[in-house]
Design a protein that fits this description.
By secondary structure, the protein is mainly α. It contains eleven helices and no strands. Helix 3 packs parallel to helix 9.
Length: about 230
Amino acid sequence: MVRSLLRRLFLYTLILVAVSVLLVLMFRWVPPPGSMVMVERKVESWMDGKPIDLQREWRPWNELPDNLKMSVVAGEDQHFGQHWGFDMEAIRKAFSHNEAGGSLRGASTISQQTAKNLFLWTGRSWVRKGFEAWFTLLIETLWPKQRILEVYLNSVEWGSGVFGAEAAAQYHFGIGAPYLSDRQASLLAATLPNPRGWSPSHPSAYVSRRANWIRQQVRQLGGSDYLLHMR
């Protein structure tokens, strides 16, 4: 009986690995139709009895503005172009900060956030973290950095039911994503740590200060030239 159970477990593991690899490989070229976070938000709305309309429109890489790409990199993951999915220095600093009793600080990279948004659920658990690490390794292995950032910008949440750069630009500023100003792009990036609590179009003093800091960081990173050197 034990051997039978182990064989089944091994078989199910192989199937899970094969399916996940094929799925990630397919999404290297095919735009994902949605994300698991979108599914989660829809289910939550049904359970709460408050239906929401999910807004999302895919924009390919060459239609996403460089100022938004760089604002998100500057605000979320300044080592995005160099690491292999995990920023070990940021993890070490976050661990030290949390051990010292400071406010809880995370160290998720854009690659990790893409894996979580696209394939997994929200919340904190070791099980989810394990799956997140697996999918992060897969997308870093099978996708170029450009594709990771492209999928992230088209999948990330920017308000209740608002997903992706195009929907965010239209919802918050009434324009298409390609027409975002530097300030608008930085405001969108500034709200990503709390996209359902902070507003890019009606920013608090803190969000405005964070947006100013992001614009400074974009300049220090070299602006859009940074994007040319991503592996």
